[in-house]
UniProtKB/TrEMBL annotation:
GO MF term set: hydrolase activity
Domain Xaa-Pro dipeptidyl-peptidase-like: 22-294
Family annotation (NCBIfam families): CocE_NonD (TIGR00976)
InterPro entries: AB_hydrolase_fold, CocE/Ser_esterase, Xaa-Pro-like_dom
Protein name as annotated: Xaa-Pro dipeptidyl-peptidase-like domain-containing protein
Species for this entry: marine metagenome
Length: 342
């Protein structure tokens, strides 16, 4: 146990280090109901930072994980390898297969777990679900990926064969390189607070460079700014065509490895809406079990951009929040509650 931040509204939280198969420790927050017992687990894995210098119940992901604990689950939230409080070197997408498997099996083996694990999360947190599912962890029961994709060459890094320059550069700049900058500074002996301020300044400068200089940089691989902080950016450029590099993480060519049902949520205004639809089609026709084919559902909301699925509107039938729908999905698959999803 690394830290604890108990008790908020009947939910306790502790931070632990979880070992991966190579010994790398990933920082993990565990949210448990007040009553001691064995519960099904809802796992979220993210590279975007659960929190820095804040308690377990910080706004955003912390409150979201506490929601599951208040409804009879243990919520487990983990910083991806090489990000924020976790050890290791970050290499997007490809690292999430083995790490996801190890996190699921660790959670299933804990004294507060009944051995049934589901996953949750949108965007890259949907990627971590699909990648883990490719490894067919024996204790994974269901996933609920939102606003994400399953082919990371087409309609993620490239679009119809053309490198998505805006997406690639802005994604790395906004979400990954500032944390890498901070980690590098700390490794050089700079105190954490100064490293954080320097990282913030780096981001401000980068936001100016991306529209002023980077957009016109050719050849694309000559852009120097990510060489130290995000070497994987250049891996993407080195593989413009669909090849073994992309095939290793492509879920759409490996549906037969996925054997659990998925609640797939998306929005027509989301940049990954095509991925949401293709995921549903692939799961219904090619996934490896009857439970995964029949139990997979797709819900698309009418509006909202990325990260804003919001409320489902069914006209005069009523409205339903996405999280409430996910709760019904988990209750059905992890607790056996007959609630109409069959």
């Amino acid at each position: 146990q690394l830290a604890s931040d108990t008790n908020r509204g009947g939910v306790t939280c502790e931070t632990v280090g979880v070992p991966m198969r190579d010994g790398t420790m990933l920082s993990t927050d565990v949210y448990k109901p007040a009553l001691t017992g064995r519960y099904p687990v809802i796992l979220l894995r993210t590279p975007y930072g659960l929190r820095l210098g804040q308690g377990c119940f910080a706004a955003g992901l912390g409150e979201g994980m506490a929601f599951w604990a208040r409804h009879g689950y243990v919520g487990v939230a983990q910083d991806s390898r090489g990000t924020f409080r976790s050890e290791g070197v970050f290499r997007p997408i490809i690292q999430e297969q083995n790490d996801g498997y190890d996190a699921i099996e660790w959670a299933a083996d804990q004294p507060w777990s009944n051995g049934k694990v589901a996953m949750t999360g949108s965007s890259y947190m949907g990627v971590t679900q699909w990648q883990a599912a490719l490894k067919t962890p024996p204790h994974l029961v269901a996933i609920a990926p939102g606003q994400t994709a399953t082919d990371y060459h087409d309609h993620w890094t490239y679009v119809n064969g053309v490198f998505d320059l805006w997406f690639g550069q802005s994604w790395v700049l906004a979400f990954f390189s500032p944390d890498a900058y901070r980690r590098n500074q700390i490794a050089q002996g700079i105190d954490p607070e100064s490293a954080r301020r320097n990282s913030d300044a780096y981001l401000v400068e980068g936001e100016q460079l991306i529209s002023r200089d980077w957009i016109s940089q050719v050849p694309l691989a000559d852009l120097p700014d990510f060489r130290t902080l995000a070497p994987y950016y250049y891996e993407w450029l080195e593989h413009p065509n669909y090849d073994e590099f992309w095939a290793e993480v492509d879920v759409e060519s490996q549906w037969d490895k996925v054997n659990v049902p998925a609640l797939i949520t998306g929005a027509w205004g989301d940049l990954f809406h095509i991925g949401s639809i293709r995921s549903f089609q692939g799961m219904q026709t090619q996934s490896s079990s009857e439970a995964s084919r029949k139990g997979t559902m797709l819900v698309m909301t009418g509006g909202g951009g990325h990260g804003r699925e919001g409320v489902l509107s069914f006209g005069n039938v009523g409205d339903q929040n996405i999280r409430e729908l996910q709760l019904r999905f988990y209750d059905y698959h992890l607790k056996g509650i007959r609630n109409g999803l069959d």
